[in-house]
């Protein structure tokens, strides 16, 4: 710890800051009361990881997202409310509701257990009994949580990260006080790398507990004290979900992952035990797909993979399973214990029975499935972006992730589960905003996010949008950067009809190499019809076009290999030949249009740069949002935070200390009003930022401005050029928020 504390002194010396103690700490900032936030943008479009119905109220549905936290609906999914207050992790692998008191809910997250006693209004982060927290990894990821239905003060939890096939520790924990305190009970009897993905207690018998793991099904007949492998009859050991039949407590079902490699016969599917899990038999009867990936690759997506299951509490032979793969996606039902199956959630064809909403590009790949104990004819399932509900045993499914809006536009119903890369105001039209998303691409709103239209027609890679440029002299002309988020592939598209249709103009044939276009700038002095754009292509360098995108040339000049890793770009509005490029921890400048480049600052002075902006009224005043990183080769920590330069990037002052400042915006009416967003990466315990911070005195002091904000991992932030009191915020999990800064009216 002493060595870590010495690092800031070295860094401040390099920066010429002098007094490290004067730097404000983001985590210590007090609460402010200037900004109020309200949810905007569309609903749906993000991964639904878990679902659960209230055991006593058929209309109450709980949903968990992989990055967006906890949602509750009191009208069977028509509308949702986000309840994340007190959560330390927004990845919800499992939801368990107390069978007798539904105010008590437990969440299994990658950072551990979260508990509420008021139906999610507030959450407590529970770590007592689990391994100590770690800043660099998950120490107690929860893969399964289960109340004992007979004695609900007893709860079981198992470690693992089933979504990612890792994080197994062969560890099972038990609580005797509804989840407030825990102790490990497996005694090391499970394999040390076993991922626990499901736990079930036999109805009416608290002593028999089953655990589905990546190393087989384990059984305890003494309430968790001893465990034995109980997989007799299974073709392999990778078990995923299991459930007892409430009406026949000796009957239990389990799903096995398909482990076929392309040459083996299909060997996953559904298995049944009628002796409480001692022995098993396959029930993969007629009508259940048994497709195997032909080339042995991507088995999960291209082989029939039933995972989720739900048993009708009235009849042990009525079972529903959900296929998560792409080729046989949907819900299947048996009424005779597995001898025959029927697909009962069908998107296409003459017998389609699904109302689909606006996300028509995805199939019904089932990631979670829930049946209402209070109304067993009602089921719900979640996909990688949607929720569907049936009220008639799967006769018809209604979408429950979005609301209807006039003229085919998209409106939200509260299920805001998306990640916004960037949010932008139109430079001319007052209420026009551009919302750039992961997975769902570009959405355009003309009412500040209340309703939207998806704008991707003609794009080749419209699933992800990294940013938009608008021609302020011809506002129907737009450019959009599109590509893949998980691999370096992308292009630039142009629209001349206000985003209704697009065509690709930045591609290898035109001189712009394949790669994510991570930053763009429009030269305002270029001629109409011959617009000059400068872009950064990830892995390729800096490029410009002087004909609106028809042709491109490389202007990386003497940047060398460093040009292949750029992360920010500024174009001087007074001089189009003056550009500043951010590359990892460096800033390079050209004053001759890209022929020659110079480093602006002393080597080793900056952290990893996440965003570079200029004061809208003074191009020499620059800000960097930075992320902490440790250089293992140099044995040196580069501290994250907010940095400012008043001399065009030559010297820097650290204004705010934080591990990960993701974004910064400067008010167009005052140099002293600054906004920053903080976040963290979901690779360790408690992976959250502290939300939005504001300074009204040029960065000397800061306050947290999170009123109405349901997620503390915001990302992009924009200030309206038409009304500087209006803010737009993109988040990593809860879509977009519209903010109002009440103090701006007092700024001169």
How would you briefly describe this protein structure?
It is globular and about 80 Å long. It starts with a helix and ends in a 7-residue tail after the last strand.
Helix and strand layout, with pairings?
Elements: H1 2-15, E1 24-25, E2 35-40, E3 48-53, E4 61-65, E5 70-73, E6 81-82, E7 92-97, E8 105-109, E9 112-116, E10 124-126, E11 142-147, E12 155-159, E13 172-175, E14 183-184, E15 196-201, E16 209-213, E17 216-220, E18 228-229, E19 239-245, E20 248-256, E21 269-273, E22 281-282, H2 299-302, E23 306-311, E24 319-323, E25 330-334, E26 342-343, E27 368-371, E28 379-382, E29 387-390, E30 398-399, E31 403-404, E32 410-411, E33 420-425, E34 433-437, E35 441-445, E36 451-454, E37 465-470, E38 478-483, E39 490-495, E40 503-506, E41 517-522, E42 533-537, E43 541-545, E44 553-554, E45 566-571, E46 579-583, E47 586-590, E48 598-599, E49 608-615, E50 618-627, E51 629-631, E52 636-638, E53 641-645, E54 653-657, E55 661-666, E56 674-678, E57 692-695, E58 703-704, E59 714-719, E60 726-731, E61 736-741
Parallel strand pairs: 1-54
Antiparallel strand pairs: 2-61, 3-4, 4-5, 5-6, 7-8, 8-9, 9-10, 11-12, 12-13, 13-14, 15-16, 16-17, 17-18, 19-20, 20-21, 21-22, 23-24, 24-25, 25-26, 27-28, 28-29, 29-30, 31-32, 32-36, 33-34, 34-35, 35-36, 37-38, 38-39, 39-40, 41-42, 42-43, 43-44, 45-46, 46-47, 47-48, 49-50, 50-53, 51-52, 53-54, ...
Would you write up a description of this structure?
The chain has 748 residues and is an all-beta fold. It folds into 2 domains: 23-30 and 418-746, YVTN repeat-like/Quinoprotein amine dehydrogenase (Methylamine Dehydrogenase, Chain H); 43-406, 7 Propeller (Methylamine Dehydrogenase, Chain H), CATH 2.130.10. Helices cover 2% and strands 38% of the residues. The chain has 2 helices and 61 strands. The strands form 15 sheets. The protein has a 6-stranded antiparallel β-sheet with strand order 31-32-36-35-34-33, with no helix packed on it. The protein has a 5-stranded mixed β-sheet with strand order 1-54-53-50-49, with no helix packed on it. A hairpin with a 2-residue loop joins β19 (239-245) and β20 (248-256). It is globular and about 80 Å long. It starts with a helix and ends in a 7-residue tail after the last strand. Mean pLDDT is 93; it is low at 1-21.
